[in-house]
Amino acid sequence: QVQLVESGGGLVQPGGSLRLSCAASGTIIFNSYHMGWYRQAPGKQRELVAAITSGGNTNYADSVKGRFTISRDNAKNTVSLQMNSLKPEDTAVYYCRATNAVVLTASGVFWGQGTQVTVSS
To answer: What are the pLDDT digits (tens) for 8-62?
Structure first.
């Protein structure tokens, strides 16, 4: 009953920037959800990139600390990922995830369809 739609991916040169957005809709009280960005490169497991709790606390993968920033706008039901100083190894499909902060079961986890980010010269 929750839908997540990512946007903002594309092709960028090394050192460039992109801003990803995730819009949530459906049966959701957005400020009751932890939000996160994950990515999956070809041949690799999906990994956590950044997360922001319902209370606004953030966490980042070591590989993106200092370069990426996650934020949320509860009034608009959106979460964003600002990606700066992009590297070729950042190339992946990026996915948005919502996790209910109260209902701690699999039924409270939702994923978006993903958006492609390609960093190449």
So the answer is: 999 999 999 999 999 999 888 899 999 999 999 999 999 999 999 999 999 999 9
pLDDT digits (tens, 9 = 90+) for 105-116: 888 899 999 999
Q: Identify which of 52, 39, 63 has the alpha carbon closest to the alpha carbon of residue 111.
A: 39
What's phi and psi for 89, nearest 5 deg?
Answer: -70, -5
Q: Compute, in degrees rounded to 10, the torsion defined by CA atoms 26, 108, 112, 87.
A: 140
Handedness of CA 40, 32, 20, 111 (dihedral sign): positive
Q: What are the tokens at 65? A: 């600390």
CA of residue 82 relative to chain centroid, distance: 10
Contact 120, 88 (CB under 8 A): yes
Cα–Cα distance between 89 and 38 in angstroms, integer?
14
